[in-house]
Automatic annotation (TrEMBL):
Name of the protein in question: Oxidoreductase
GO terms of molecular function: nucleotide binding
Residue ranges of domain GFO/IDH/MocA-like oxidoreductase in the record: 144-259
Family per similarity comment: Belongs to the Gfo/Idh/MocA family.
Annotated source species: Quercus lobata
Domain Gfo/Idh/MocA-like oxidoreductase N-terminal: 6-125
Coiled-coil segments on the chain, per record: none
Length: 360
């Protein structure tokens, strides 16, 4: 491991932290330095079960991790309702912040988090892992090619999974005081990000939640969808749900080409991912086939996408720590736009599926 490895502390022992702690171990420029929970016993058990190094510190509080001078950055997998408190405090303690998505309950909380990071000179990044898969960069090459894809016209994306009865009753993602966005925050965040990614992060003019949203007795969203509309005629739709079979699709249609993939959040295989790209396709003479047919593109990687996320984040932190660089603003900018659309979808549902206007 490099001497300049960024030392991570994890505050909270959520299930997703198992995956990210492994990612920190796999990343060549990162190191697990500490973990904290509301009890020492829980933190110690988490460290033992997830192969923390023997010199990693175990703490019985979140504050102790933030007060550790040997921690450079923190990964925060806490419930969304706790993000603003702990992310702001982490930034004030000069810890760089890798924050699980959804980032905040609303844009006001989001801005408080990012303002704290910017004013304290620390890097912010959210935990949208698929953004760091090399397949994503390869797909972007296709989408940016005016000769092969052209101008985007229509985008559809879906992320659903069928949660079991225990999840639907007890998981933090269905509790209004913990993760009030429900499926919209947990799964819809990915859909919204993918739409913005295709649209080169141009915010839509109008967001309209689709009729048919399902809420639990506490008012938390279990299933919903929305349509997004731009002034230039682009349209997008998404559906997210805790009530339907596991599906992770993106379809992006341009004036000259189409992109499809079916595993955008978590690839079917950890170190290999594919997508379908078709350009200027048409029917054959008898209209019995396509010419040319779409092609399957395969992209391999030595590291899983979550480790690549940690590697990218750690590189930015190292540049600040060693070279005196300024924090990269790309990531908070992308996150904020995702938050704005998420907020608009929720507002549209609350207003009886009325359109919500967004400005750029």
């Amino acid at each position: 491991m490099a001497d300049a490895a960024i030392r991570f502390g994890i505050i909270g022992c959520a299930e997703i932290a198992r995956k990210v702690s492994r990612a920190i171990t796999l990343a060549p420029n990162a190191k697990l330095a500490a973990v904290g929970s509301r009890s020492y016993e829980k933190a110690a058990r988490f460290a033992a079960e997830n192969n923390f190094p023997s010199d990693a510190k175990i703490y019985g509080s979140y504050e102790a991790v933030l007060d550790d001078p040997n921690v450079d950055a923190v990964y925060v997998p806490l419930p969304t309702s706790l993000h603003v408190r702990w992310a702001v405090l982490a930034a004030q303690k000069k810890k760089h912040v890798l924050l699980e998505k959804p980032v905040a309950l609303n844009a006001v909380e989001f801005d408080a988090i990012v303002e704290a990071c910017e004013s304290n000179g620390v890097q912010f990044m959210d935990g949208t892992m698929w953004m760091h898969n090399p397949r994503t960069a390869k797909m972007k090459e296709f989408l940016s090619d005016n000769q092969r894809f052209g101008q985007p016209k229509s985008i559809q994306t879906i992320f659903t999974f069928a949660a079991d009865p225990d999840f639907l009753k007890n998981d933090i993602r269905v509790k209004p005081d913990l993760d009030a966005h429900g499926a919209l925050g947990d799964a819809g965040w990915y859909c919204i990000r993918s739409i913005l990614w295709v649209a080169d992060y141009e915010l839509p003019k109008t967001v309209i939640a689709l009729h048919g949203a399902v809420l639990n007795d506490a008012g938390v969203i279990l299933s919903c969808g929305a349509s997004l509309h731009w002034d230039d005629g682009k349209v997008a739709t998404f559906h997210c749900s805790f009530l339907s079979h596991l599906t992770m699709d993106i379809t992006a249609i341009g004036t000259k080409g189409t992109l499809h993939l079916h595993d955008f959040v978590v690839p079917f295989q950890e170190k290999e991912a594919s997508f379908s790209a078709g350009s200027e396709c048409w029917f054959n003479e008898l209209v019995s086939g396509w010419e040319p047919p779409p092609s399957k593109q395969i992209v391999t990687t030595d590291l899983p996408q979550e480790a690549l996320m940690v590697k990218e984040f750690s590189s930015l932190v190292e540049a600040i720590k060693v070279k005196g660089s300024k924090p990269e603003k790309k990531w908070p900018t992308i996150s904020r736009k995702t938050q704005l659309v998420l907020d608009a979808v929720k507002a549209s549902i609350e207003k009886g599926f009325e359109p919500v206007e967004l400005g750029n």
